[in-house]
Structures are given as structure tokens and as C-alpha cells.
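User: Can you help me understand a structure? I only have the sequence.
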Amino acid sequence: MTAAQLTDEEIRDVNTRYHDTAAATYDAKWGIDYGAEGRRQVCGKLAKALGGVALGPYDRALEIGAGTGYFSLNLMTAGTIGRLTATDIAAGMLRALEANAERLGLSVETVACDAEDLPFGDAEFDLVLGHAVLHHLPDLRAAFAEFRRVLRPGGSVVFAGEPSRYGDRLASVPKRAAAAVAPLWRAVMRAGPAQNGHADGGADNHELEGFVDVHAFTPERLAGAARAAGFADVRVRGEELLANWFGWANRALEATADPNEVPWAWKVYAFRGYLALQEVDRRLLEPRLPPAIFYNLMLAGRRPA
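Assistant: Let's start by predicting it. Here is the structure, written out as C-alpha cells:
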């Protein structure tokens, strides 16, 4: 069975169960940072998506699929967002976000809900944003209609980290290669296997991962979903090619190992290598190659006044 064979409700249920269980180790798995580098990464992504438009400040922001808070909490500490309402279908993710916010000294509102049926009034927010969430939503048409409804006239919608159809196929190459050599890599690293076979909640939860991703987008399809909902000035850009090849190979390896036994030197190599290749992508490839070839797509638009 594949995600395409599931009903919309089954997709929502799988996403809820997977992300609830994965929440406890999510930040460690993805190397999520809430310091200076995290702020630099997130503010850079927002600026890139908006195409040079001033970065706020946005008084009221709504994050869709907020997870543990990587995107919105970094924007809050940067002063880009004033008041935040963070939503996610998985209550476990929101509990992790609340803990991160408390540690950072931030006050946030969290609401567990479906992105396709938001429990908010019309025109409540200045910014609707999300990171790596649209590809989990079974009904994009309903979701974008909701995003437009809750935005004030002139408000912005921004989504980043969405897999492209072609880029997703490219990323499968380093993932498969990493899976094949993972036992040898663990032996070299002297790292034991992850608890229950995988670091994102165990082998059973890892099996759900193949059902949580519903879409891989073409730039045209992603832009079309926003325009069909009535958004104007819609822009889609591509982001990261070499960095994602490198990152996916390393993440696939690390996910099979006990995270406490992966050597610090390896983590430094993986982190610095990713940042270096990210700069190559940003400076050389992203300005020259079509968005469709990159792993990540980012979308920005505006609700007409």
C-alpha cells in the first residue's frame, strides 16, 4: 500500500501518529538549532521566499504544521514575528514546541488542529507560514482556501522546505546508498544501532514514514494551488541541491545509529559540510538553474487588499 491509496482521514491519522511519536527526538534527528545559526538559516529562507521584501515585523503570525517550532520560534527571537499562534495536527509536536518556547523565554499560543479546517476567524493574521508541511496535507485546495480566509487583506503567505517532484527522485539516490552501507558505517563509527532499529521513534514508527508524505510538487502545481485560492504575486523558488544530497545521505546513516554513540567529529563534519554546500547552492546554482531541479521549493504570495 502507498500513501496514494489512503483516504484523506487515513493520511491525517498516520501523520498524527507518526509525528506524535517522533516529537521527542525530532530536534536531535534534524539538527534543529535555536541559536544564532538557526536564526540565520530561517531568516535567510524567509527573505529568499519573499524576494527581497522587508522581513516584517509581523504583529500576528500563524504557523501551519509548526512541529517543534524551528521556523516560527527562530523568527520570534529574531524580532520578525510579534505574536505567534502555532498549529499542528500532532499534539506531541506542540508539547515539544511549548517546551522549546519556555526555554527561550517566549510566549506562544498552540492549537492542535487540521490545516484544512482552521478554528480561527476571518482576517486574523498578518502572516501565514509553514516549513515542510504542505506535502503532508491531503486536500491542498481546502488548505489554501483556509490560509487566505484567516489572512488580513495585504497579508503574506510563505511556505518553505517543500519537496520538488524531480528533486525528491534525486534525493532517493543518496538515501538508498546510505541505507546499504549503514551497518559498515556504524562499525567504522563504533556506534550501536538505534533503539528499536531507528531513531525517529523506533522501527514501527519508521514504517509509517512512507505514508506521511502525500505530495512532491512541480513549481507550477505549487504556484497553481496558491493562485486558485485567490493569492496574488505568487512566487516559487528552488533551494538546495548539493546540500540536500549531502544532508540526506548523512541523515539516513545517523538515523540507524544510537545518537549518543555517533562521534562528535562526525557531527561537526556533517554540519560544516552541509553549510559549505548550502553556500555553493545559494551563490552558484540557485540563481542559474530552474526551481524544479532543486530538492526544496519555497512559495510566497499575498492576499489582495
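Now, to help you interpret it: The CA atoms of residues 57 and 79 lie 7 Å apart. The radius of gyration is 19 Å. Let me know which part you'd like to focus on.
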